[in-house]
Each structure stands twice: as structure tokens, then as C-alpha cells.
Amino acid sequence: MRAILITLVGVNLVAFALQWFWWHPAPSLDEAPPELEGQSLELLGSESRQSTLGQNQAAPTPTPPRYCVMVGPFAGTEPADGLVGRLSSLEVGAWVQELEVSDGQGYWVYLPPEVSQQAALRRLYELQAKGIDSYVIPRGELANGISLGMFVSEVSAEARRTELSDLGYDAQLRTVDRTLRETWVLMPRREARSLAPSRWETLLERTGDVERRENLCPGVASE
Length: 223
Known about the structure:
Blueprint lengths: L1 H22 L10 H23 L10 E8 L2 H13 L5 E17 L5 H13 L5 E2 L9 E6 L2 H13 L5 E17 H4 L4 H9 L5 E6 L7
Antiparallel strand pairs: 1-5, 1-6, 2-4, 2-5, 3-4
């Protein structure tokens, strides 16, 4: 009797176990529960948006001013830097810039280029032996030619050319645009106009013989 009871209990346990696993299969390792899957996608989406924003939202490039106020020319960078410092204390952003400005026309006397640098050097030694001030042109269209001087006056340049021609040299004359480099202090026009005229008078009194003008900022093409 006892053996029969134990057998029935064992059969019932086996039947219960088979029924449980048949109706409640274990979840697949490849599939996450719906509620966890949704949380995971939301988290990844948030991180992805932050990464994209970090890549796309770069610091905006400041727009350069179109019109500038220019103060100068200065004899050197030291007095220009001093003015920049005083303007900075007045909350006016300024900077020092070297500008190439026109210095009128010049008249260049020269000998045409030689066939080689060695030939140009031989011609140079010949001229210098006769006391003629000259040097070899190192580059450009007239490379290996001989420069015989730059003159402000066309009359002086023509007299020099004639003198060398009389010595048997094929001297040439060319008109060129002369330029020189000047040191200026530049600032946006809007910021410069924020200063009262009396303040500008005080600033310019301490900078020596300079002028203040308004113009297109260097590098901005005129319309």
C-alpha cells in the first residue's frame, strides 16, 4: 500500500513538471523581454542624439566686420600696441595690422636678364668695377637682370638710362607702382563709434602724429 502511494505521488510530480514546461517555455537568449527591449532602445537613442549634437553644434564663426576705423600710421608696433591696450580697457576690440599702401609711381632703370645667373654675376662685377651701383634681380619676370636704380622722378630715371647707354649698356626704363608697409590699428566701426568725440581726442593726443579714418576693412571687396 505504501509503495502504491509513493508511486502515485511520483507520477503526479512528473505530470506537473511536464505540464509546466509545456505551457511556459523558457525565454530565448536571443530575445529580450518587451519592456527591457523598449528601455534599451530609448537609452541608445538618447546617447545617439547627444553625440550627433556634439558633432554638429560647433562654435559659430564670428562674422568679420565690413567697415573698420583705422588709426595710424604708427612708427612701430610698440605705440600701436599701447593704443590697442587703452581701447581694450574701454571695451573696444582692436588689433594691429601691417598694411601695404600705395606710394605713387616709380621709374626703374635696369639691364635685361642675362642667359644665366653666372652671366648675371659677371655683368654685376663688371658694373661694380666701374663704380656703378647695381645688383642682380633675384626673381620674377626680370630674374638675372641687373637693377640700376629706382627713381621717383622720370627725368632723373631717363638721365640715368642715357648715362648708361652712353657707356655701351642697353639700359631699359620701366614704370612701376611703388608700395610701402605701414602699421595701423584697426577696430570695428560700430565699436569705435561707441566712444565720445572727447574720448577720441584724448586717445589721439597720446599717440603722436596719426590720423583716424573709416574705410572698408582690409580684405573686404568694394561693391
